[in-house]
Specification:
flat, 288 residues, 9 helices, Four Helix Bundle (Hemerythrin (Met), subunit A), single chain, mainly alpha
């Protein structure tokens, strides 16, 4: 390993601060510590209320789709692996490799959010469990919805970092900003249209009706075409265009983003265990 690589890997130590840790990272650690207490309160509330649910409370094992949730959990865990690869790549100054890992992380995060939207839709419209009609619904939707919001914020942060990595070296003025805004809008269009099309397809398949798929393609045709067009635009915007103002000096920013993403994944492991798996191991006893 050469001297430059060694310097890049040692970059987390910042001699300009009293602790030797970059101030951005210290601030993020402080935020994550407060978020631990916040999620701890939500998880504890759910566990307390589930001990003796009131009569008429829905049985979680009858409404959970454990296969879907297990799949989304696996996807989120794999996103942590890709995030770690992105951090490793930028520490070595490999910007293109970092971009690829970030894109996969973003995709996995969006798949997780898509699964959560599908689950919420099933709970509300098929099983009639809402945030207001039962204690279980109130604690469940508040806890998992808050975590989903954190994932969405993380996906946005990852997307902005990905777009930032295309800033041309020496770029000054509105030209770069305008291009970045267009890149973000195309990215948002690709995400929304793809998720809309994918969720519609999932509902059509789940319907089990022979006319569901033809009806899906008729109603979602424009959205599918728009998604393909937006994905093509992303590929065009992501072409190499010379040197960029993004290298191993930005490693601390990517590492801070990685800390947040790993935290969100760890929180989900706790939620998945406490909210989902616990119901199959230690079912609650209704009050009499």
């Amino acid at each position: 390993m050469n001297v430059a690589a060694n310097t890049a890997l040692d970059r987390p130590h910042d001699p300009s601060t009293a602790t030797g840790i970059p101030n951005k990272k210290l601030l993020l650690w402080a935020f994550l510590a407060s978020d631990c207490m916040f999620f701890g309160t939500l998880i504890a509330s759910h566990l307390v209320y589930r001990l003796h649910p009131p009569p008429g409370n829905p049985s979680p094992t009858q409404i959970f789709n454990i296969e879907l949730t297990s799949f989304s959990t696996f996807i989120l865990l794999m996103s942590s692996l890709m995030m770690a690869l992105a951090v490793n790549a930028i520490q070595r100054g490999q910007v293109r490799s970092m971009r690829s890992s970030l894109l996969v992380t973003i995709t996995f995060g969006l798949i997780f959010l898509g699964c959560q939207v599908f689950e919420f839709n099933d709970f509300v419209f098929e099983k009639h469990v809402t945030i207001t009609n039962s204690i279980f619904g109130s604690t469940f939707f508040t806890l998992t919805g808050t975590h989903g919001t954190h994932v969405a914020i993380g996906v946005l942060w990852l997307t902005l970092m990905y777009i930032r990595s295309f800033k041309p070296a020496g770029a000054i003025g509105g030209g770069w900003v305008g291009r970045a805004v267009i890149h973000l809008l195309v990215f948002a269009a690709a995400v929304l249209l793809t998720m809309y099309s994918a969720l519609g397809f999932a509902h059509a398949v789940m319907a089990g009706d022979g006319n569901a798929l033809p009806a899906y393609f008729r109603s979602h045709g424009p959205a599918i075409a728009g998604a393909l067009l937006a994905l093509g635009g992303l590929r065009w915007l992501g072409r190499a265009r010379g040197s960029v103002d993004f290298d191993d000096r930005n490693a601390n920013d990517v590492e801070s983003m990685g800390l947040y993403w790993h935290f969100v994944d760890i929180v989900w492991i706790v939620i998945f265990t406490a909210v989902y798996l616990l119901e199959y191991v230690l079912p609650a006893t209704p009050l009499r």
